[in-house]
C-alpha cells in the first residue's frame, strides 16, 4: 500500500515537472506510456485535467515525399509564431533494435538546442493495437506539458498509420511530383483522411499536374458527401527551402477555424476519445483471456472452428 | 427457428459447391466473410473439417517493386506444376467506392479463363482489426475449396499489412534495385518477416548491390537468434519475363521442407490459429460494449481519463 502511494507521488511529481517544461520529465512520461507501464492509469489520471489545449497536426505520405524535411520546416514556421512545438515521429520498429531506427538526435536537426521544441520517435510495436494504444497517450503527455502544437508524423501507407494520423485535428497528406498518379494516392487510402494536401518538391517537373490531379479527385469525392464540407486545399511547397510553408500554416489555421465554426473540432475529438477508450478497453479485456494454446491446436486439427473457439475463450471454458 | 435451419442448409450447400470447385460459391462465401455476415460462425463450422491442406504464401513489398507482376508469374509457375492456385490481393480501400480499387478483372490478367486459378481483391475496411479478422476466414474458404496454393498479396509497409502477411506459411518480401537502401527495407519492418527475399527487376542497375545489402543485413540479424534458423535466401527475378521464378518456387519448397523438419510449420499454424481466435474474441467482446459517447465527452472535458473510462465501459456502468 505504501509502495502504491509512493508511486502515485512520483507520477504526480513527473507530471508537475513536465508541466514546468522539463524535457526529461516529458520524455520519462512518454517512455512509461510507450512501455505500457503498470502506472499508466495513474499517469493518465494525473494528465487528464490539463489536456485539451494543444492542436494536433498529422503529417503522412509515402516514403520519399519529404515528410521529415516538411516536419522540420513546419516546426520552424510555428516557432516563428512563438508556438511551443512537439513532434512524434512514428517509425516501424527495427527487428534488430526493437526500437525506432532513426534516433531522436538524427531527427532533431535544426531544433536540437531549441527549448521550445520537443522531438520524439516512437517505435511501432508490431502487435495489434500497439500504435492505437500508445500514441494517444503520448499526445496526452505533450498536451498536458503545454505544447501549443503537436505534430504526428507517420509513413502513410498502412492501415495502422492511417489510424494514427486520424488522431489529428488537422491532417496533412504529402505528395511529390512523379511519385505515381492519383490512383496511387487513392490506393494508399489517404484521400479520405486529408484536410490539406501538400505537393512538396514543387520545383520538380510535374508538380502542377500532380496538383491538378488532386483537385480533380477532391472534386469527385465531394459529390458523395452530404452537408457542408471543408474544401481541401492543395498547397505547393519546397520544404527544403521553406517555400510555401506560410501557406501551409495558413491552410491549417483556416481548417481549424472551419472546424470550430461547424462543431467539427469537438466532433473529431469526441470520436478520438471514443476510439481511445475502446482500444484501451479491448486491450484490458484481452489481458483477461485465458491461454489460447489448446484451442489453437483444436482449430489447426479442424476439430473446432475459430468462432466456436473464440466463444470458448470468452467464456473461459477450454472444453465445451 | 425454421429460418435458422434454412440458413444453415444454405451455408452447407455453398460449402459443398465450393468444394466441388464452383468459383461462384467460393466468391459468395468470401463475400459473406468479408461483410462480417451473421452467418460467419456457421460458415466457419462447415469449413473447419476441410481445412489445413493448402500452403499459404505471402507476398509483400513497397509500391513499385512489381508485386502484381510477380504474383502473376508465380501463379503461372505453380500452374505449370498443375497446382490449383488462389490469390487474395489486399488493397487499401478506396474512399469513393468503399471497395477494392483494382477490380478483380484488372488483376486476372493471364489467368482470366483458367479454371484452376481464383483471384480476389479484398478491401481493407479502415477499422482496427478489420484485416486480421476477414483475411484468415477468406483463407479458410479457399483452403476448404481445395486450392493447393493460396497467395496473399499486400502492400508491405504498414503494420496491419505485415500482420496479414504473417498469416502465411512462407513469406516472400519483394524489393527492386534503386528503391532505397537496406535501411529503407528495415524501416518497412519487413526484414523480420521474410522467409525468402526476391530482388525483382534484376536486369536493372544496382540489383547485385541490393542483393548483397540484403545478405549482409540477414547475416547481422541471424546472430541475435537462438537455435537452428532458416537461412533466408535472396533470389533475383525479372518477373515480367518469368526469369528466376523456378528458383523462387524452389526456395518456397525448400523453406516448407525445412519448416516441416523443424516442427516450424505446426508452430506457425498454431500461432496463426491462436491469433485468429483472439482477434475474433476481441471483436465479439467489443460488440458487447455499451455506447461510448458519454464517456468520450467526459474524457474530452478532462473530467475523466481514458483508462478510468475504459474500466467503466467494461463494467457497463456509465457513472462511477
UniProtKB/TrEMBL annotation, chains A, B:
<dbReference type="GO" id="GO:0003924">
    <property type="term" value="F:GTPase activity"/>
</dbReference>
<keyword id="KW-0547">Nucleotide-binding</keyword>
<dbReference type="GO" id="GO:0005525">
    <property type="term" value="F:GTP binding"/>
</dbReference>
<dbReference type="InterPro" id="IPR052040">
    <property type="entry name" value="GTPase/Isobutyryl-CoA_mutase"/>
</dbReference>
<dbReference type="InterPro" id="IPR027417">
    <property type="entry name" value="P-loop_NTPase"/>
</dbReference>
<keyword id="KW-0143">Chaperone</keyword>
<keyword id="KW-0342">GTP-binding</keyword>
<keyword id="KW-0378">Hydrolase</keyword>
<dbReference type="Pfam" id="PF03308">
    <property type="entry name" value="MeaB"/>
</dbReference>
<comment type="similarity">
    <text>Belongs to the SIMIBI class G3E GTPase family. ArgK/MeaB subfamily.</text>
</comment>
<keyword id="KW-0418">Kinase</keyword>
<dbReference type="GO" id="GO:0016301">
    <property type="term" value="F:kinase activity"/>
</dbReference>
<dbReference type="InterPro" id="IPR005129">
    <property type="entry name" value="GTPase_ArgK"/>
</dbReference>
<keyword id="KW-0808">Transferase</keyword>
<protein>
    <submittedName>
        <fullName>LAO/AO transport system kinase</fullName>
    </submittedName>
</protein>
